[in-house]
Predict the 3D structure of the following.
Amino acid sequence: EVQLVESGGGLVQPGDSLRLSCATSGVTFGGADMSWVRQAPGKGPEWVSVINTGSAWTWYADSVKGRFTISRDNNKRTLYLQMNSLKPEDTAVYYCVKDYRSPNEYWGQGTQVTVSS
């Protein structure tokens, strides 16, 4: 059974940091490009970041570039997103997604991040 389980979300103030984790099982983690996708209330999904299988390249949305860092530990089968200098507009449900926008796409259940003073 494929499982992607996100954790680390919460309520923080503007300027704070959070680190999201995505623990996986039932997938060939080391062979999959892994992404973080977020969805704010009333909006469509926004692709936040992606990291390739060997961590050789990453991509970030302009909205988070310079503030967020994606990483992965293939031995632990876990994906991370370090989020610094959080803004209210970062408020969303954050999803861990395997092979986003491919026939093998698979989503976790999401973790809520709320940035508010």
User: Anything to note?
Assistant: The CA atoms of residues 39 and 45 lie 5 Å apart. DSSP finds no helices and eleven strands in the chain. The chain has a mean pLDDT of 95. The first strand starts at residue 3 and ends at 7.
